Each structure stands twice: as structure tokens, then as C-alpha cells.
From TrEMBL:
Alphabetical UniProt keywords: Oxidoreductase
Entry superkingdom: Bacteria
SUPFAM superfamilies in the record: NAD(P)-binding Rossmann-fold domains (SSF51735)
InterPro entries given in the database record: KR_dom, NAD(P)-bd_dom_sf, Sc_DH/Rdtase_CS, SDR_fam
Sequence ranges assigned to domain Ketoreductase in this UniProt record: 14-183
Molecular functions (GO terms): oxidoreductase activity, acting on the CH-OH group of donors, NAD or NADP as acceptor
Organism (species): Nocardiopsis flavescens
Protein known as: 3alpha(Or 20beta)-hydroxysteroid dehydrogenase
Family indicated by similarity: Belongs to the short-chain dehydrogenases/reductases (SDR) family.
Length: 269
């Protein structure tokens, strides 16, 4: 079944909060959850952006609420969790999707950018788990999907981005261990090249050069990532916790050698 086919993942009636949901993968995830019948909290630092996506979910026949949330603000997380609990009495899923891109190495990363990237991409995940854990547990258990990156699976040239995404991978395992007795599962998701504003925020040359290392030969559609998120949130993944799920068209599987062979234009001698 396609991502978001009603009933395909058994999420009808569940309450799920998605951060960074005003655009890109977060938007695709929110729309897919809406089609599944989940009540989706569309959270984003852009209040109007969150409202717009929530309206799109409702226009398509789903249920959604919008909340402005700066994921770097612990008080904002406390208030968001309290609002969800007060309004709906439950939370069954959390998708820590919010993130920023940064493509500079150690020497070229400013102190301010280092803090900004770590705050959004890593601290936002930490606060999300910390302040929703009780609500998830009280709902009889649930699933947390922390969006990392293939930059958290291999060496990557960007200092802050790599550090944050490796951190997300590690803290997801910590969460899986800590919250297991509450029935809460925690996994990290590692997308490769996905056609989103985040990917396209840099040069087109970066994207085209990166594609040479993707065996599938193309970027992913955000819907393809959303489909994996739906699976991880569902009961079909009820024994999947503390692990990494990679969605990258084979990029990390092929590694260096796929690119070498692509450059040669033929098999190895």
C-alpha cells in the first residue's frame, strides 16, 4: 500500500506530534499521518507555516492541530507537551524531524553556527524525548522517530551537522534503553538525499555530484521517507527499537566503491 493509504499502518485515532512540519519531510510526514487517520500535531517554529500544513491535512479529510514550537527551547517543549495532554489526553508518537543544514568543516565553522546546528539538530531531539516521555508512557506506550541522516552513519565533512546527526543516533539508543519499561520505542531514521528545501539550500552542483554516489541514481521523494516513518510508528514495528533505519538508495551500502566503479564506467579489472 502507498504511504498514507487509510488503515495501512493501523494509526487511525492515534495522536502524533511532528516537528519541523511546515515544509520538507516534516510536511510529507504530517500529510501522510493525516491520510492514515492519525490526529497530527503539526509543530514548527513558523506558526503560520504550521497552521497552513494543518489546514492542508484537514482539507484532505484528516485531523490536525498546529502549534508553534522552537525545538531549542525546553520551556516551549514543556508547554507543547502540556497542551497535547490537556487537549487530547494522549500522545502515541513523536517524530523529531526539525533540522537545519550546514556544510562547513571544523576550521570554517563559526562558534555561533556550531551552537545553532547542535541546538536545533541535537538538543531539539533531546528535549523532545525528555518532555514527552511521560505522556507517551501514560498513553500505554508509543514510538519516537528521531530523524538523523546518513551523515550520522559515516564520515561527513560538515563539523556541526555530522556531530549532531551522530549524536541523534547515539541518544536514540539511550532513549530506547531508558524508556523500554514504559513501552516506548525509540529509533533513528537516516535519510540520504531527499528532495526538500533543506537539500536544495546549497548549490545544485553539490546535489548532482552527490548523486554519483547513489546506486539508485536519484534523490528520494519525501513521501518515500514518510512511508518509513509510518512503519516505525506502527505496531508492525513493535519489536523494533534502538536501531538505525537507513533510507538512502544504497548510498552508504556502496560507499567509496560504487563511486570508483561509476567513474571507471565498467566493472573492476
Amino acid at each position: 500500500m502507498a504511504a498514507g493509504t487509510p488503515g495501512a499502518h493501523g494509526l487511525d485515532g492515534r495522536v502524533v506530534l511532528v516537528t519541523g512540519a511546515a515544509s520538507g519531510m516534516g510536511r510529507a510526514e504530517a500529510l501522510a499521518l493525516g491520510r492514515e487517520g492519525a490526529l497530527t500535531w503539526v509543530a514548527d517554529i513558523s506558526g503560520p507555516g504550521a497552521e497552513e500544513v494543518a489546514a492542508q491535512v484537514r482539507d484532505a479529510g484528516g485531523r490536525a492541530r498546529a502549534v508553534r514550537l522552537d525545538v531549542t527551547d525546553p520551556q516551549g517543549w514543556r508547554e507543547a507537551a502540556e497542551l497535547v495532554g490537556r487537549t487530547d489526553g494522549a500522545l502515541h508518537g513523536l517524530v523529531n524531524n526539525a533540522g537545519v543544514s550546514h556544510r562547513f568543516g571544523i576550521s570554517d565553522t563559526t562558534d555561533e553556527d556550531w551552537r545553532r546546528v547542535l541546538d536545533v539538530n541535537l538538543s531539539g531531539v533531546f528535549y523532545g524525548m525528555k518532555y514527552t516521555a511521560s505522556l507517551l508512557g501514560a498513553s500505554g506506550g508509543g514510538s519516537v522517530v528521531n530523524v538523523s541522516s546518513i551523515a550520522g552513519m559515516t564520515g561527513y565533512f560538515s563539523a556541526g551537522y555530522a556531530a549532531a546527526k551522530w549524536g541523534v543516533r547515539g541518544i536514540s539508543k539511550t532513549g530506547a534503553l531508558e524508556y523500554a519499561d514504559r513501552g516506548v520505542r525509540v529509533n533513528s531514521l537516516h535519510p540520504g538525499l531527499v528532495e526538500t528545501p533543506l537539500l536544495l539550500s546549497g548549490s545544485d552542483r553539490f546535489v548532482q555530484e552527490s548523486l554519483r554516489s547513489v546506486p539508485a541514481g536519484r534523490v528520494a521523494d519525501p513521501e518515500e521517507v514518510a512511508g518509513v516513518v509510518l512503519f516505525l510508528l506502527s505496531d508492525a514495528a513493535r519489536y523494533v527499537t534502538g536501531t538505525e533505519v537507513v533510507v538512502d538508495g544504497g548510498l552508504t551500502a556502496g560507499g567509496l566503491y560504487h563511486r570508483i566503479l561509476a567513474g571507471l564506467g565498467e566493472g573492476p579489472a
